[in-house]
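Posting here for the record, re: nicotinamide-adenine-dinucleotide.
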Amino acid sequence: MTILITGGAGFIGTALTRALLEDTDEDIVVLDNLHPQVHGEHPILPALFDRPRVNFVRADVTDPLAWDALLAQTRPRIVVHLAAETGTGQSLLQASRHTHVNVNGTAVMLDALARADRIPQRIILTSSRAVYGEGRWRDLTTGEYFYPAPRGAAQLASGLWDAIAPSGGGVEFTAHEASQVEPRPSNVYAATKLAQEHILLSWCAALTVDLTVLRLQNVYGAGQAVGNPYTGVLTYFARELNSARPISVFEGGGIARDFVHVSDVVRAIEAALSAPVGAAGHRTFDIGAGASGTLAHFATVLAGHVGAAEPDITRDYRLGDVRAAYADIKAARDGLGYEPRITFEEGSRELLTWVAAELEEALSA
Ligand SMILES: NC(=O)c1ccc[n+]([C@@H]2O[C@H](COP(=O)([O-])OP(=O)(O)OC[C@H]3O[C@@H](n4cnc5c(N)ncnc54)[C@H](O)[C@@H]3O)[C@@H](O)[C@H]2O)c1
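Prediction output follows.
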C-alpha cells in the first residue's frame, strides 16, 4: 500500500512523512519540485527521505510526463495533495504562477491518475482558511450576519480595522466553520485553494473517490522555511526577535488569528487518512488550535520567552490582510476525532529555538 504526498518535502509534508514512517507500515512516495523559494537554490533533503520506505521523486505537479513516469511504477492508495504556491501577497502579482501550479497542477495530477488507471481510494487536500476571505461577521444592532468586502486602503488608513456593519453599529466576527460560513476568497492564492476544492470535489464525486478537505488555519512550528520571505507571520516575528529587533505589530495589535502547531495538523491529516474508506464521501473540516488570540498577544508571548522588549504596536497595515481568522473545530472533533495537543506557550518556545538554530547555521555556512 502506498501513500502519495505531493509537496511532501515542504513544512507540513516533511512532518507528515516523519509521522507516517512511525505510525503506519505503508510505503510513502513524495513528489516535490523543491521550489527554490521554499528550499533555497541548493536544497538539502532531510535523511528521512533516504529511508527504504520513502521514494522521493523530484518533479513538478504540472508536468504530465513526470506523472506518467511515476504512476507507471506506483499505485497510490491515498493521495495527500500539499504541493502549492503559497505566497498570499505574492499571488496578487503572480496570479498566473499561482493558478498554474495550484489549479492546473491539481487538474494535471487528476488527468494522470485517470490516464494511468490509478484511481485512489481517497484524496486529502490541505486547503486554507484563506478561502473565507474577510469571513462572516454579525451586525450587533440587527443581529444579522454579513460578509464584508475586502478592506480597502481608505478604510485601513483611517484605522477602521473591523468590518463595517450595515447598521453602522458594533460587530462580532464568527469563527470559520465550513457548514456555516461561505467561502469568499479575497486574494488569488485563496481563489486557487477554493478552485482546488471544487475541482477535486467534482472529480471525486464522479469517480467515487473519498475526498477530505482540511481548511488549515495558520500553521506554525519547527521546519517552516526561515529564509522564505513569504512564510508565516510567527516565523517572521521569531526572526525579528533573533536579530534583537522589537516585533512590530500592525493594525493596533488587534488582528485575530488561530495558530495551529504543525504536529496537530499532521494529527488531523493522519485522522483523515485512517478514517474508514467509503463511509465518508466528501467532508470539509476546519483545522485550528481550538483557541485564538490577537497578534499583540502572540507577539507578547514570543517576546516574553526571550526577555525582549514589548512588541511595538503600530497603526501600519498591509493591504490584503484579513482582520480576523479562527476556526470552530467542533466538526473536526466530532468527524475526525481531531484534538489539538500543542499549546501556544509550548509550540512558540520550540519555534524560537528552531529559528535561532536555522539562522545560526545560515550564518556559519
Ligand atoms: N503553512 C500554512 O500556514 C498553511 C495554511 C493553510 C494551508 N496550507 C496548505 O498546506 C499545503 C502545504 O503547505 P506548507 O506550509 O507545507 O508549504 P511549503 O511551501 O513548506 O510546502 C509546499 C511544498 O510544495 C512544493 N511545491 C511547490 N510548487 C510545486 C510544484 N509545482 N510541483 C511540486 N511541488 C511543488 C514545494 O517545493 C514545497 O516543498 C499547501 O497546499 C498550502 O496551501 C498551509
